[in-house]
Amino acid sequence: MDNEYNRYYIKIRTIFGINPKTIHEELAIALGPNAPSYPTVTEWAKRFREGREDVNDDPRSGRPVSELTDENIELVREVITNDPHSTYDDIIAETFLSHGTIERIIHDCLQMKKITSQWVPHQLTDEQKQERVKLCRENLAKFRDGSYRLCDIKTGNETWIYHRQIHRKSTNASWVGEDESPTTIVRRGKFEPKNLFSVFFKSNSPVLIDAVDEGKTMDHNYYIENCLKPVVKEIWKQRKSAGTKGTKLL
């Protein structure tokens, strides 16, 4: 609306025969930094001298805003439903809509965002998933009715630990002076030294930490001899009176 007011002023002053330079100076005094530029004043003054009446912008070329229709929204939704990994180029090829229109439909209308897939160690079958859900519900029910105690549950996992630790970028940030160079951190190499650890723990402390020696492979025999059996022995040490009775190893 401000542009229209400015153009009405330019139009009236042009009708009175005032030159564009004077009109621009008047607008600059009245509006300060919000005044239209001198080339803009000159262009609109020229149009009004040539007989133009309308103060609105000319229609712009390109795709109309009407592309944001229910039909196009459903079209984009269908492409994404058929292939959740579709790229913008894929959707453009299928719908013939512009990149900007597709972006508005996805983010504003469909309320969707693209995130990377989550990696999982195993692809479970439906039966395995149901069995795990069943066991979890049974354990949860026993925990709630007092049959299980949190301290009776033992679990474990394996992880690789590199000899040289690299912290996250946010913790590596440092203050530097105007003429100082930022510190550098060498990226971790693919074959840097590392060790595989098996860690078993309970609710309040670790039970067993096993480091696999260099050159050895963790197979089922290694896991039984170096992890499961030592865990059972450690539980006996910590619970001499009860032993493994009531212990749940998950």
TrEMBL record:
Transmembrane portions of the chain: none
Alphabetized GO MF terms: nucleic acid binding
Entries under InterPro entries matching the protein: Homeodomain-like_sf, RNaseH_sf, Transposase-MT_Hybrid
Name the record gives this protein: Transposase
